[in-house]
Design a protein that fits this description.
- This is ABC transporter permease.
- This protein is an all-alpha fold.
- About 75% of the residues lie in helices and about 0% in strands.
- It is built from 11 helices and 2 strands, in the order ααααβααααβααα.
- It has a two-stranded antiparallel ribbon.
- Helix 1 packs antiparallel against helix 10 (about 230-250) and helix 9 crosses helix 10.
- It is globular.
- The N and C termini lie far apart (about 60 Å).
């Protein structure tokens, strides 16, 4: 079992880096905007489908990946418009767009799946793991830099307190649309790279992506903390890698099969969500015991408390 796990470790790290871009996108909506965006399940497939179809027709994989980002941003913008201009609940906006994207993705693909086996991709020209480390870090530092700009600060403020930022004259509708667009652009890029890594795109490849993204964000924050944007984005990337390593380890356990992947993911997310609460409760209990001990000690040292 241990030998199998060690041999699968590079593959788990590689997948973690590929999905890290998607996790960064989920971080923007889930943590920064505080927006429950389910468009992710659709835009991931949109990116994969767009890149795969373009590459299969002889288009440069770099141009195909860029087009995938734009397609994802367009999907995110539609969700943002439904929520801000259409006044539709955020969760419902994402669900509606996710449903619409399923049909749109089938239109893009023209069939349930498209193979790009043997085609040149952006991943085939470089060593996979070092290349993905560079790509992920570029987007990580670009996101960190953006969040320090006036527009980025407005985006963060929109997620913290919309009423307050409106009082300063900022247009929260525009910042919300921008944030959701950027998020789905990253998600679509992740889908495009996954399609190039697996050499095919499937109409159902995006199912459950939001859970994987949330798992990466929550695990990263629980283990590495998120006190600053720099630390938070780094935690999300590392969380994506840790998540894939845990999945790889779990699948080595006897009794678990590949079909149990969704169940394992759900259990990991539950543990990651419960862990901070349990840790906080233990800390509070320890602090209460310490205060009780100090109080008893102070009573014993006072004249009235001498025995």
């Amino acid at each position: 079992m241990f030998e199998n796990f060690v041999s699968s470790l590079p593959g788990a790290v590689y997948l973690g880096l590929l999905y890290a871009l998607m996790a960064l996108g989920v971080y923007i909506t889930f943590r920064i905007l505080d927006f429950p965006d389910l468009t992710v399940d659709g835009s991931f497939t949109t990116g994969a489908a767009t890149a795969a179809v373009m590459i299969s027709h002889g288009v440069s994989p770099w141009l195909a990946s860029l087009t995938a980002i734009l397609a994802g941003m367009l999907a995110g913008a539609c969700t943002g418009l439904l929520h801000t201009k259409g006044k539709i609940n955020g969760l419902l906006s994402g669900i509606l767009m996710m449903i619409a994207l399923y049909s749109i993705n089938l239109r893009i693909l023209g069939m349930p799946n498209v193979s790009i086996m043997g085609e040149n991709t952006v991943l085939s020209a470089f060593p996979p793991i070092p290349f993905m480390i560079v790509v992920v870090l570029i987007f990580k530092f670009a996101l960190d830099a953006f969040m320090k700009t006036d527009l980025g600060l407005s985006l963060r403020a929109t997620g913290d307190n919309k009423r307050m930022i409106r009082s300063f004259g900022a247009n929260t509708d525009n910042t919300t649309i921008l944030g959701i667009s950027l998020s789905n652009g990253l998600v679509a890029l992740s889908g495009a790279l996954i399609a190039q890594q697996s050499s095919f795109a499937d109409a159902t490849s995006g199912i459950g992506m939001i859970v994987i993204g949330l798992a990466s964000v929550i695990i990263g924050e629980a283990i590495f903390g998120a006190k600053t944007v720099f630390r938070a984005t780094l935690a999300v990337i590392l969380g994506s890698i840790v998540y894939r390593i845990v999945i790889s380890l779990a699948l080595q356990i006897k009794g678990f099969e590949t079909s149990d992947l969704k169940l394992i993911t759900a259990v990991i997310v539950i543990i990651a969500l419960v862990f901070p609460t349990v840790r906080s409760a233990i800390k509070q209990r320890g602090a209460a015991k310490k205060r009780s001990a100090e109080l008893l000690k102070s009573l014993e040292t006072t004249p009235g408390g001498e025995r």
